[in-house]
Design goal:
alpha+beta; 2 domains
Length: 401
C-alpha cells in the first residue's frame, strides 16, 4: 500500500478551535516529554514487538485513519505486553528512574511503601519489561509487572486502587475517586500515546499511512507521524492501528539519530473480549503490610493532569520556535552548572561526564543529552530544553531570548 498524506494536518480531527489550538500547543511541546515519562505511568501500559507480515487491507487515507482512531470506543481488552525504553541515560544504579519521575525511593527516609505505583513503575523507564494488562471500562483496570521471581500488580476497581508487591508482601491502597482518576490521566497505552501525538499534528508535521503489518496476530494499518523540519531529535512515530477496532496496538518512537527505538510499546497478545470480573478483585494477603495513601508523606506538587492544564502553565513560559523544534526557556536567575575545572576533584569529573561544555555568543554552558530530550544550562542560569539537537539549543541561546 502506498503512503497517503493526511487530507488536513491542522488537527487530528481537522478542526481548529481556540480550545483545540491551546491543547495542540501543549501537546506539541509535551509529546516527547510525555513519552520520556511513560515508564512512570500506572494503569494500562502496553508495549512493543516486531512487525510481521503485510496483510492486504482496503486503502485508507491518513485523515480517515486518524478520524477512526478518534471514534474508536474500545473499552474492554486484555493481553500480554512488553515495553522497551532506551533513553540513552547514564547508568546511575537505578537513580535515573527516580529522576525521571520525581519519585523518592521507598523507605529512603524510613517511610513510603514498596507497593506505591509512583515508585515501583518508574523502573519501566529503562530496559525491557513484560506486563499483563486487563481493562473493563473506565473503572476497572489491572496491570501486572512480571519479574524473575516476583510480581507487582496495580488494580483499579471503582474507587479503590490497590498496589501489591509480592516480593516484599506490601500493599498500597487508595480509596480516593480523585486519586483513581489521576492514576489513569497519563499517557499509558498505545492509544494514549497516539492521541497525544495526533493532538500535536500541525503544518510542521507529515502524517501518512505507510502500509500494513500484523501485531499480536491482528491485521493493522501503519500510521507514520514525523517532523517536516530538521533539527528535531524525533525521527518518526509509528502507530500500528487495528483494522477492525481502530485501537492503536503499537507505538514506536524512533530518534533522528538512528539506532533502537526510544520507546517501543505494543501488544504481544491481545483479546477484545471482556475480562473475567474476578480479574479486578483484590484482598490483601495474610500478613501483608498495608499502607494507605493518606499515611504516606505529602507528595511534591503533581504535574498538570491534562493538556489543557498544561497549556495554562505554558502561557507564561517562553517558548522559542514552533512545532517539533520548540524550545522552552527558563531563567533560574542563578548560577549554571559548575565545570570540573571549577569544582575540581571527583565531583567535578562526574559533572563533566554527564554533560558537555559548549560556548557561543551567549557565553558558556553545559549540555545534558538523552536520545530524545536535550537541555542547555548556561553559566548565567538560563535553561533551554526541547526535543532538539545540541546545535539548535546553542543557536537558541545565541539569540539572546
Amino acid at each position: 500500500m502506498a503512503p497517503y498524506e493526511s487530507d488536513d494536518s491542522t488537527t487530528a480531527a481537522g478542526i481548529d478551535t481556540p480550545r483545540a489550538s491551546r491543547r495542540k500547543k501543549a501537546a506539541r511541546y509535551v509529546v516527547p516529554v510525555a513519552v520520556t515519562g511513560v515508564a512512570a505511568v500506572t494503569i494500562g501500559l502496553v508495549p512493543a514487538i516486531a512487525d510481521s507480515g503485510s496483510p492486504d487491507l482496503p486503502e485508507i487515507s491518513a485523515q480517515q485513519l486518524i478520524q477512526r482512531i478518534a471514534e474508536s470506543d474500545t473499552e474492554r481488552l486484555s493481553g500480554t505486553v512488553k515495553i522497551t525504553t532506551d533513553l540513552g541515560l547514564p547508568n546511575l544504579g537505578g537513580l535515573e528512574s527516580g529522576l525521571l519521575s520525581g519519585a523518592a525511593t521507598p523507605g529512603d527516609d524510613g517511610s513510603g511503601s514498596a507497593a506505591d505505583p509512583q515508585t515501583r513503575l518508574t523502573e519501566l523507564a529503562t530496559g525491557t519489561h513484560t506486563l499483563r494488562v486487563a481493562v473493563d471500562g473506565p473503572d476497572k483496570q489491572k496491570l501486572s509487572l512480571l519479574e524473575d521471581a516476583a510480581e507487582y500488580s496495580l488494580i483499579h476497581n471503582g474507587k479503590d486502587v490497590w498496589g501489591y508487591d509480592s516480593q516484599s508482601n506490601e500493599v498500597y491502597h487508595s480509596t480516593s475517586a480523585e486519586g483513581a482518576e489521576a492514576e489513569q490521566d497519563v499517557p499509558a497505552t498505545p492509544k494514549d500515546l497516539a492521541e497525544r501525538a495526533l493532538a500535536a499534528v500541525d503544518e510542521t508535521t507529515s502524517v501518512t499511512v505507510d502500509g500494513t503489518a500484523q501485531v499480536a496476530g491482528r491485521d493493522a494499518y501503519k500510521l507514520v507521524v514525523k517532523p517536516k523540519q530538521s533539527g528535531s531529535t524525533v525521527g518518526q512515530i509509528s502507530i500500528a492501528v487495528d483494522s477492525e477496532t481502530y485501537t492503536p496496538l503499537k507505538f514506536t518512537l524512533t530518534p533522528a539519530g538512528g539506532g533502537a527505538a526510544v520507546v517501543d510499546a505494543g501488544f504481544t497478545q491481545v483479546s477484545f473480549d471482556p475480562p473475567a470480573a474476578s480479574t479486578f478483585d483484590f484482598t490483601p494477603p495474610e500478613g501483608a503490610k498495608v499502607t494507605e495513601e493518606s499515611d504516606l508523606p505529602a507528595a511534591e506538587p503533581q504535574q498538570p493532569k491534562s493538556e489543557e492544564d498544561l497549556a495554562k502553565g505554558l502561557d507564561g513560559l517562553n517558548v522559542l520556535g514552533e512545532g517539533w523544534n520548540a524550545i522552552a526557556v527558563l531563567d533560574t536567575g542563578g548560577q549554571g552548572i559548575p565545570s570540573g575545572t571549577e569544582t575540581g576533584g571527583a565531583f567535578g569529573g562526574f559533572l563533566d561526564s554527564l554533560g558537555s561544555q559548549v560556548s557561543g555568543t551567549f557565553g558558556k554552558g553545559t549540555v545534558f543529552e538523552t536520545r530524545l530530550i536535550n537541555a542547555l544550562i548556561t553559566d548565567d542560569g538560563k535553561v533551554y530544553v526541547g526535543a532538539v539537537t545540541q546545535d539548535a539549543l546553542v543557536k537558541a541561546a545565541d539569540s539572546g531570548q
